[in-house]
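Marked as duplicate of an earlier ticket. Keeping the data here for the record.
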Amino acid sequence: MRTSSTKGTRSTLGRTTRAAATLAAGALALSLTACGGGEDDKSGDDGKNGGDKQQPASVTLPKLDGESLEVAAVWTGTEQENFKKVLAEFEKRTGAEVTFVPAQDPIINFLGSKVAGGAPPDVALLPQPGAIKQAVDKGWAKPLGAEATKELGENYSQGWQDIGTVDGKPYGVYYKAANKSLIWYNAQVFANAGAEEPKTWDELLTTAQTVYDSGVTPFSVGGAEGWTLTDWFENVYLSQAGPEKYDQLAKHEIKWTDPSVKEALTTLAGIWGKADYVAGGPTGALQTDFPTSVTQAFTGGDQPKAGMVFEGDFAQVNIGETEAEVGTDAKAFPFPAVGDTAPVVSGGDAAVILEDSKAAQALATWLASPDAASIQAKLGGFLSPNGGVDSSVYPNAVQKKIAEALVSAGDDFRFDMSDQAPQAFGGTPGKGEWKALQDFLKNPKDVAGAQEKLEADAAAAYGG
């Protein structure tokens, strides 16, 4: 979601992109704005996501009294606190002591320093497939044992298993996933403006103008963090250029000077290039971090700093820091279709073992289980690709339907493009794609300049 990988990524991309086709538009043409239903809404349940299905037995874990573990991730705030509750249950069941280690972006660099110092964490949550490959190539990552692999096979689609596999061996447990193709909006702003949820890009522009005419800036953009801008680009590009081109650009088989990139950047400029459409204008957006970009859309009643904010289901964590209630005050619609089909881009965080031990293997097994994911799912702002999680545990109808769509899609999803790229290009603050798109947000008229910079940085990162 945030950081990325190395040029070793290319050997895993074939598996990743074959297993990752666009989430079926029909699966996500769902009522994300439903404000009723909640946990007792089981209509249309097909048995895959709860309802009458028989729940799997609780995962079996060994006794680990006296054992201690360290788990590293870049998660902060509410996300970190909720994950610690998952770790606390593991401690309760096993007797082990688990310490959460806050990591910095890029996490691969953070782990490198820990490995060099002879004190790597036992387990790390890596936010892209390329980072897993890099950890394997460096000899840091250890394969999953029989119990963790068994838990993966029982609970995950083959696509999610493949993304965590390197050279035929399973290394990563995708504990957390993300649907990064949602636009959240302030329901009262829309009601006051008479705005409707758009289904196409042209309708989105019309909706933006309607919100603007009502006296509210249409969009909040967290431009201080370059990964949010890559997500904007990826959604536009996937829908407009199509999945085949998306895969080619992800592997740098076509250049960033390709006409398809020009078309996507020109489309983005339709919003980024209108200063009155972005809260604070380009300068303000570049000083706005992601959490603030979300909260400022739902603070101030019906006169917030912006009426809409684009990002994944995890934005609910930040919405929860305001007085807005998801499903009532804060609603969401799928990213509108720019081309023939609405896009869906997914991301995720995989647990990888760095210090192999009985305790580390048990923790990986725990994180692959429905038991673990269900704890954090109940707390909100979290989405699991684990098919054993009963969707009724999600705290609201919006999150429940997003989760059902992800699981029911099986292997049909596209993974975040920047997370597939070498770290120097797709995952480093102030460099590569992050910096180039920040510069483009500042000057959306310079499409050609942005393409040239993107291609120069990509060529260097991919090795030519």
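See parent ticket for discussion. Confidence is low (pLDDT under 50) at residues 1-31, 33-55.
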